[in-house]
Amino acid sequence: MKKIFVLMSLIVFLFADILHITSKKFYYDSTKLQSIFIGDVKAIKNKDKIFAKKMIVYFDKSKKPVKFEAIDNVKFILHDSNVTYQGYCDKLIYNFVTEDILLLGDAFVRKLETNESISADKIKINRKNKTIEVLGDKKPVNIIIKVK
Amino acid sequence: MGKIVLFVLILIVILIYPIYENSKISVISDNNVSKNLPLVKFFKGEFFSYEPILSKEGNFKVLEVYKNKYLLFDMNVFNILKKEHFSSKQGYLKNNILHLIAFRYKNDKYSFFSDEVFYNLKTKNIKGDNFFLTSVDYNATGRKFFIDSKRDIKANNISFYLKVNK
Question: Are A25 and B152 a contacting pair at CB < 8 A?
């Protein structure tokens, strides 16, 4: 019976966009409406991959995901149409509604196709508008653009 | 007979204890309700619980009463007011620990399955192994889990599938 339900739910999920998170430990805080993943956290959505030591998923009152935070030793690879971003940071915040990705603390992003890179304290990637905004304040911003 | 009623009452209380979230219960006035209704009624392998109106009903195939333990096989409990369904292949009560095998819980929002559940009657903590949780917005599977009396959950080796906007 359990296998049938697993299969049925997987079929339903097959037609949706799914964020798959795995970790060694999990904690759900019913008061704060947070799911906390600790230890070897892997988050995969389509071709996008995020690795971290800790991840917190925030839900609204109707149990819909609002945003997640990947914390500590964050590494990521994100794919948009014809563009691949690879990088690392101390903290990554992904907003499910706006699709903004905020990279905080020693953030570094490289476009694999062009080898252009940015490093700063704060970098904001908007996947809807396909823009990257650098918000560095303490650390100087480094932008490397390949010229012909 | 008193022990059986007590056991079934304990089972009902334990099983209605919400694992994650409760749906709101509609408040029903007990005016116009007969005061002669029993607390629990057994009828041909089925039982009916009145609080004060019929609130829970269920059935089981076998109930075995021993000197120091109780065994219940193929049990189903329906909480009519909360629209919840609990089932277990085997229930075993000894020393304040209720051990349920092939446990299943379902409400209108999610379903929860576990191979093995241990409920501590004193601490009201639930722990178990190998669980599967499914709902409209998320699925999760994991190994050892622990649910405290505040309904917070801890689990190991989790695999969590969350439906997100495209």
Answer: no
What does each C-alpha distance from A147 to A115, A116, B70 come to in angstroms?
Answer: 11, 10, 79
Q: How many independent structural domains does chain B possess?
A: 1
Of A22, A28, A31, the CB nearest to B159: A22
Instruction: Flag whether B55 is in a domain.
Output: yes
Contact A65 B139 (CB under 8 A): no
**Residue B108 amino acid letter:** D
Nearest CA to CA, how far is B165 from chain A (Å)? 6
Query: Which residues are bridge partners to B72 per DSSP?
Result: B63, B91
pLDDT (tens digit per residue) in B58-75: 999 988 888 888 888 999
pLDDT digits (tens, 9 = 90+) for A28-78: 888 899 999 999 999 999 889 999 999 999 999 888 899 999 999 999 999
> Cβ contact (<8 Å) for A9 and B134?
yes
Neighbour-count burial of B67, counting CB atoms closer than 10 A to its CB (0-12 exposed, 13-18 middle, 19+ buried):
exposed
Structure tokens at A52: 């971290």
Q: Kindly report, residue by residue over A79-103, the tens digit of the pLDDT.
A: 887 888 999 999 999 998 888 899 9
CATH code, domain with B82 = 2.60.450.10
Do A78 and A48 touch, CB atoms closer than 8 A? yes
For chain A, the three-class secondary structure string (H helix, E strand, C coil) is: CHHHHHHHHHHHHHCCEEEEEEEEEEEEECCCCEEEEEEEEEEEECCEEEEEEEEEEEECCCCCEEEEEEEEEEEEEEEECCEEEEEEEEEEEEECCCCEEEEEEEEEEEECCCCCEEEEEEEEEECCCCEEEECCCCCCCEEECCCC
Ordered by where they begin, the domains of chain A are 18-144 (2.60.450.10)
